[in-house]
Amino acid sequence: MQLARLLPADTVVEIGPGAGSLTQVLAAAVQRVVAIEIDRDLIPSLRANMPSNVEIIEGDALEIDFPDAPFHLVGNLPYNVATPLFKRFIENRDRILDVTVMIQKEVAERLVAEPRTAAYGPLSVLVQYYANVTYGFTVPPGAFKPPPKVDSAVIRLEWKPDVAMAKGFTDFVHQAFSSRRKTLANNLLGMFGSLGRDEILRRLEHAGIKPNTRPEELSVTEFLRVYNQFR
Questions:
Q1: Which domains does the chain have, with CATH numbers?
Q2: Model's pTM, two decimal places?
Q3: E-strand spans in the chain?
Q4: Rounded Cα–Cα distance for residues 23 and 29 (Å)
Q5: H-assigned helices in 164-219
Q6: What is the separation of C-alpha 132 from the centre of its chain, rounded to a whole number of angstroms?
Q7: Which residues partner with 131 through β-bridges?
Q8: 47: left (phi > 0), else alpha (psi -120 to 50), else beta?
Q9: Of 167, 87, 67, whose CA–CA distance to 131 is shortest?
């Protein structure tokens, strides 16, 4: 709750309320809570036990329409859909004020990873392009019943101002990481083979990137420089 920095007049969308423990805390702290739960067996109990400022919506957070009014997003993200959910949050950041969620620790480490580390990859670049990411704290398996097989972590995303939506950049980054064993130049050759290797190397040089650089060595800013050479 402290990491989310919520105020009494706020609206919160909660993903995955489960039994509703966090939902109750949120309801006591803010003006309105919209809780999205995909498990229909949990819906009757949630609706029966929540105060009047909580709206329970049955549905998939990957598909359901978010409220139009600006809101803070919190929740416990399912491990198997965390990555597509982050992409959806980015697409809806015009109304999502910020994001504070619990996710698998491995995914959290990817979100905050720096270049030249094993955890650094396309998700690191894309999320860090749009947001400043704060790693809050680790949650051990023993905090849950039944305990999962992995550690969890709570992270916060705060959107960077004046960053335009760039689907082309998203696709470019994913393809640039298509083979971590190859150099960036070789991966780009697979994407832009018609340009020829010499032209690709020339454009990398214009971006200030050495020909033997691997994709995981590039910062977000360097990826943008390379992308602008090929867009």
A1: 11-159 (3.40.50.150), 167-230 (1.10.8.100)
A2: 0.90
A3: 11-15, 32-37, 54-58, 71-76, 96-104, 131-139, 152-159
A4: 10
A5: 167-176, 184-191, 197-206
A6: 11
A7: 159
A8: alpha
A9: 87
Residue type, 228: N
H/E run at residue 149: none
Query: Number of C-alpha atoms within 13 angstroms, CB side, residue 77?
Result: 29
Tens of pLDDT along 133-142? 999 999 888 7
Tracing tokens 């590039």 back to the chain, one arrives at 218
Residues 36-58 have pLDDT tens digits of 999 999 999 999 999 999 999 99
For CA atoms 34, 15, 174, 161, the dihedral sign is positive
Residue with tokens 């919160």: 12
CA–CA distance, 109 with 118 (Å, rounded to integer): 10
Query: Who contacts 132 (Cβ-Cβ below 8 Å, separation ≥6)?
Result: 157, 158, 160
